[in-house]
Amino acid sequence: MPRNGSLPTGGAGSMAKRRGEEEGRFCRYGAWYLSRIHREFCAEIRGVKEGRDPEAVHRMRVASRRLRAGIPLFSRCFSRKAYQKVSRGVRRITRDLGDARDLDVQIAYLEGLVESLREDGGPQVNGCIALLSRKKEERDALQPKVIADCSRLEQKGILSLLEEEIGAWNTPDGPPHRLPSRGFPMKRSGKAIQKKVEKLLSYSPAVGDPDAVEAHHAMRIAAKRLRYIIEVYAPLYRNELKPVLKRLKALQEILGNLHDCDVWIMDLEEALKRREDPSAERDPGLEAGMAFILKDRKEARAAYYLALREEWEALVASGLFSDLKDAVSSGVLH
């Protein structure tokens, strides 16, 4: 694997030398980007282990996602063994942080709901409190696993290995500006972004179907991946990509809210169905709370679906996706 920007030249030649220089610039750019995300990730470990601040989990999860998106883009700059070890470690912590974050979001929603029901004197409040208690128990049960995953990253030297690898790429103080406008890595970045755009656009028919739950979930992932890859390469361009990132973030948030509702709906419908079994243990108060939340989440999903349609139609009408593809294919630099 190429390290420190060196490539086999096969006996020299200006072409091989130029390729080696371009490879070096690419890896230095990767070092600049990944080192920032690495610091953001490490800064949250202590707070995540303590388990008192849900936002620490959120920030670390976002950083882990950015690492997970960025590391494969610069895989050729890693040694093979280091790449595999770092990738596995980041993938594992991202999954468990996702589970913790999902519960944190559900708990925050339930806490707000319980507070509003108490003010209104709603009869479902006891059932919602019972469900909130169960969610908190689930989150508490997950915390040791989160702590263990954080400790594993440190004990196995995964984070120090990542730091060592990117340090070997001759990290500059900032992103390199002398990059080839029509070659590597601008051509590579443009193709990568265009591919993610096409993937997101492939889910366009699902926007017209309110019941396309799986497609909406896949669309959320596609929007997230497009946003993260743009974040990796955005500094290479002028300001063309900043408005795109802002709009993609708004779309991703709508799709995320839609997904959160879908998770609630699926879980509650399954739980209520299990309680229809004559042999099942019954709790009328809890069931009343679950039914109330189910109705609330279905109404919220309908609203988020309308927001998705409006946002998607506005994005398409604005020509944002075609403008994005034009911007990255032109290779405009800082």
Descriptive overview:
This protein has 11 helices and no strands. The model is unreliable at 1-11 and 177-183 (pLDDT under 50). The protein is globular, with a radius of gyration of 23 Å. It is mainly alpha-helical and 334 residues long. Helix content is 76%, strand content 0%. The protein has helices at residues 14-43, 45-50, 54-73, 80-120, 125-155, 158-167, 186-201, 213-233, 242-274, 284-318, 320-330. It has 2 domains: 1-167, CHAD domain, CATH 1.40.20.10; 182-324, CHAD domain (Alpha solenoid), CATH 1.40.20.10. The longest helix has 41 residues, at 80-120.
Topology:
Layout: H1 14-43, H2 45-50, H3 54-73, H4 80-120, H5 125-155, H6 158-167, H7 186-201, H8 213-233, H9 242-274, H10 284-318, H11 320-330
Helix pairs in contact: 1-3, 1-6, 3-4, 3-8, 4-5, 4-6, 5-10, 7-8, 7-11, 8-9, 9-10
In short:
The chain is mainly α. The protein has helices spanning 14-43, 45-50, 54-73, 80-120, 125-155, 158-167, 186-201, 213-233, 242-274, 284-318, 320-330.
Q: Which key terms come to mind for this protein?
A:
2 domains; CHAD domain; about 325 residues
Oligomer: single chain
CATH homologous superfamily assignment of the largest domain = CHAD domain
State the helix count: 11
Task: Indicate the proportion of strand residues.
Answer: under 5%
CATH class placement of the largest domain: Mainly Alpha
For the record, the count of structural domains works out to: 2
Span between termini: 29 Å
Mean residue pLDDT: 86
The helix-strand sequence is HHHHHHHHHHH
* Helix vs. strand class: mainly alpha
Number of strands: 0
Shape assignment: globular
